[in-house]
Specification:
mainly alpha; 0% strand; elongated
């Protein structure tokens, strides 16, 4: 049982740490999105690919996915420890779960992208936009919980 391992006097600090951590994940995802948009813009303009940008985008993607999933699991664990079940804040939970599923979907879509003209680029682009939008919603839901 998870609540045996967390001192309840530090729980409020962990809740804030969860929010701060996930806010930084959001900022990192914005950076990842910026890299992807820059790569997309170069490709659609017919410019040669910038290998450095592509490599950075490809290397950071799986790391960002794992960090995003870790943030979700930490939040679910904190909710369970604090309230005794993970669905105390169902909208926040299910928004986070949707983000996790989309992060995983984005990964599986991205591994199918081959070459400059790939039908998987547009779904990758749109899942990224949805993830960013859901993160914004999630931030406000989380702030509503904290305050």
């Amino acid at each position: 049982m998870l609540n045996l391992f967390i001192n309840h006097s530090i729980l409020p600090y962990l809740l804030y740490a969860h929010g701060v951590y996930n806010f930084f994940i959001f900022l990192a995802l914005l950076y990842q999105s910026w890299l992807g948009l820059k790569i997309r813009k170069e490709r659609t303009a017919g410019k040669p690919p910038t290998v450095k940008l592509i490599r950075r985008h490809r290397n950071l993607g799986p790391i960002m996915i794992l960090l995003g999933i870790a943030g979700f699991l930490a939040g679910a664990g904190l909710a369970y420890t604090d309230k005794g079940h993970i669905l105390e804040y169902p909208l926040h939970f299910f928004t986070g779960l949707a983000i996790v599923f989309l992060l995983i979907a984005t990964f599986f879509i991205s591994v199918r992208i081959k070459g400059r003209v790939s039908p998987w680029r547009t779904p990758h682009f749109f899942t990224g936009i949805i993830i960013i939008g859901l993160y914004i919603v999630q931030i406000f839901l989380g702030l509503d919980i904290l305050f």
